[in-house]
Amino acid sequence: MIRTRLLSVLAALLFAFPAMAAGKTIIVLDGSGSMWGQIDGTTKIEIARDTLRKVLETLPEDTELGLVAYGHREKGSCSDIEIAIPPATGTAAAVADFADRLNPKGKTPLTDAVRKAAEELRIEENAATVILVTDGLETCNADPCALGRELEASGVDFTAHVVGFGLSEEEGQEVACLAENTGGLYLKADDAGQFAEALETTVAKVPDPKPEPKPQPASVEFNVRGIARLSQDGPDMADSSEVRWDFIPLDANGEPANRSADGGYRGVFAASVPAGSYRAKARLGRITFETDVELTDDKTTDVIAVLDAGLVEITPKRTPEDTEADTGARVDVHFDGTKDGGYGQTRVWAKAGSIRVTGRIGKATVEESHELAAGETLKLDLVIGSGLVVPSAVYAEGGPEVEGNAIRFEVQDARADINGKRKSLGGQYGPGKQGMDVPPGDYMLYARLGKAEAMTPISVRAGERTEATININAGVLAVSAPGAYRIEFLEGKKDIQGNQKNLGGTYDVEAQETLPPGDYEVLVRYEGDRAEQRRKASVTAGERTEVVVE
């Protein structure tokens, strides 16, 4: 059923190309890893492949169609964008074949993908249309809204349409602007059926989504103004660029339609939209306000959003004496069943009333409760008592120092539990580096390299750097055995049961292990009938012992 509906929708969409634009069209196809998500038990990519092939078989031969794909060749790459099929006539089979081979795996560089499609369409010379189908938001630090404004400001005949799968209203607003800024449509669908219905009732029935506006006498410059205020009696937020306004048309049942009629970021936002019923929404950070409103052509309707909110500005510090924010600190403000925050110097819009502020540096945490009044700016110094442990190690008293990333350091509780286990508060491989953030207190610094382990007590103070060196009391036993199949390290003495503990080994002709001082035995195994060999060896702390077995 889903495939049948999608087939009819995509057919309507593609057959509408000549009416939508006299020039060429490119489909920008999402190849990110999320396309393996399922709709009614079938993956999105399977539905796309099957539907595309059936639709493309019915296209007129003179349709100038191309395909751009992204996220289908590399994981984690923001440059994985491919002009798979340049726009031309007779490309239907090639587009379908490419979709069949598409293997979603990567990120979502949708902004640069649309830009590349526009460049391929040579929009300076031709009328052009791009249809972006995405099930996710931009993940490559690009701004689709800015691209839409740039393309529209260039004065070329370019239109972008965006279809969003399973996006929330807030997520949809992040990509809807790409369509709105170029005169295109944004279509929202939570499942395959809604996707089909959206296309059937919009794209297929719109002969030209970017027609010349009909001249109408304007009785007012704007027919709606959104006015945001932090408190009931407070001033308008006229200078703010952080308030997002959206006016979403309502259908006959009073439910929001699939796209916003108009919107923008202003504390006082004025617009002219077609007369009708709308849901007005204002958003400031994680605070939202919404109300339904009737708009007419002959008057300006003011929608006043009292957000009942204030601003919390937080400077996280390790000690009260610090003068600047700790950039590695995580800060969150909890309010009204939600939270918002960031790292380092943080500012959060929060609902008035009781709020909770939390901070974290490594394992060190702090929590404070405050009262926030509507319209207030609450400035806080949040002291997160954290110290920094910077570890190093030596093989023996007086050296040499342990280098490289093979050694493991951990800051552990000073006291062990009933089973002899100690809780780890932080860890790192290799000496020095960034260090480990832990709360003030007494701890044990633990180190492990090869089969050698050591532990030493340390004390950590808030805002201070504790540099601690631990003696792992170990040496290195290095073995060279030409022709060996496997080299193993054994304890030198057998236990009371006659067992000789195996300390591990490697399949190679050379091996080395870091070991505590003492006597050991090297076992060398060979392939075939050659007998194994054993050699005794002694390890001294801070020294390297080399053994050759021939």
What is the average of the pLDDT values?
A: 87
Note the total helix count. Answer: 8
User: Helix fraction?
Assistant: 10-25%
Structural class call reads alpha+beta
Q: Name the quaternary structure.
A: single chain
The main sheet comes to:
6 strands, mixed
Q: How many strands in all?
A: 36
Gyration radius (Cα, Å) is: 33 Å
Distance between the first and last residues' Cα? 73 Å
What's the gist of this structure?
Helix content is 15%, strand content 42%. It is of the alpha+beta class and 550 residues long.
Key descriptive features of the protein:
550 residues, alpha+beta, 4-stranded antiparallel sheet, 8 helices, 36 strands, 15% helix, VWF_A, VWA domain-containing protein, signal, vWFA_dom_sf, CLCR
Task: Please provide a written account of the structure.
This protein has 550 residues and is of the alpha+beta class. The protein has 8 helices and 36 strands. The strands form 10 sheets. A 6-stranded mixed beta sheet has the order 5-4-1-6-7-8, sandwiched between helices. It has a 4-stranded antiparallel beta sheet with strand order 11-10-13-14, with no helix packed on it. Strand 13 and strand 14 form a beta hairpin.
Secondary-structure topology with pairs:
Layout: H1 2-15, H2 17-20, E1 24-30, E2 38-39, E3 42-43, H3 44-56, E4 65-70, E5 81-88, H4 92-101, H5 110-120, E6 128-134, H6 144-153, E7 158-165, H7 169-180, E8 186-189, H8 192-201, E9 224-229, E10 243-249, E11 262-265, E12 268-271, E13 276-284, E14 287-295, E15 301-306, E16 309-317, E17 330-335, E18 338-343, E19 346-351, E20 353-361, E21 364-372, E22 377-383, E23 387-394, E24 408-413, E25 424-429, E26 436-438, E27 441-449, E28 452-460, E29 465-471, E30 475-480, E31 486-491, E32 502-506, E33 510-515, E34 518-525, E35 533-539, E36 544-548
Parallel strand pairs: 1-4, 1-6, 6-7, 7-8, 9-15, 16-22, 23-29, 30-36
Antiparallel strand pairs: 2-3, 4-5, 9-12, 10-11, 10-13, 13-14, 16-19, 17-18, 17-20, 20-21, 23-26, 24-25, 24-27, 27-28, 30-33, 31-32, 31-34, 34-35
Helix pairs in contact: 1-3, 1-8, 3-4, 6-7
